[in-house]
Specification:
Elements lengths: L3 H16 L2 E6 L5 H13 L3 E5 L1 H11 L12 E6 L4 H14 L4 E7 L2 E4 H9 L3 H42 L1
Helix pairs in contact: 1-3, 2-4, 4-5
């Protein structure tokens, strides 16, 4: 018989699963209380929800959220980081935490936009630039040919202007 507390937890997890852009499954075995607190604080600053979950409740929440594939990444001791904006931010935050703290935390996999990611793919995602940076690079590359054309078309006119300026300066002397 499910208790009201467990029903509340399943409903809360269902909400996280429905709204998240990425859910990253981690194995937190070996993390002490202070390290877990530091992890949660770091992720909270980045807008990431981190929760240690009971597997059976997480499976129920995944089914209720219409994302049964999440069940594949919830095996054994599991903590899930739910990201709600740019999918690379939570991954980057976890990778940075693991590197800086030399943490025993490991990434098992992730669920992003109806697709399962392996631990290797999550590591690759952590090295990608942010969406804003990619857009800025694209805009720079799109503008480069136009600015190059403007410089080429402007060169004869500016050369003529420099020549006339030098000629005018020579006549003043």
């Amino acid at each position: 018989m499910p208790t009201a507390r467990k029903i509340g937890l399943v409903n809360e997890m269902r909400g996280w699963m429905e709204q998240c852009t990425i859910a990253i499954s981690t194995d937190f075995t070996g993390l002490g209380v202070t390290e877990m607190t530091a992890l949660r604080r770091t992720l909270r600053e980045k807008g990431v929800q981190f929760s240690v979950v009971k597997n059976t409740l997480a499976h129920l929440a995944a089914d209720a959220a219409g994302r049964p594939a999440i069940k594949d990444i919830v095996q054994g001791p599991t903590g899930i980081a739910f990201g709600y904006g740019d999918p690379t931010e939570p991954v980057r935050a976890l990778a940075e935490f693991m590197k800086n703290k030399r943490s025993s935390l490991t990434i098992k996999g992730a669920f992003m936009e109806e697709r399962m990611l392996t631990a290797g793919e999550v590591d690759t995602l952590a090295t990608l630039p942010s969406k804003e940076e990619l857009i800025a690079r694209l805009m720079g590359r799109l503008q480069w040919p136009v600015s190059g054309l403007v410089q080429v078309l402007n060169a004869p006119i500016s050369g003529l202007a420099r020549l006339l300026q030098r000629h005018a300066e020579g006549m003043e002397q």
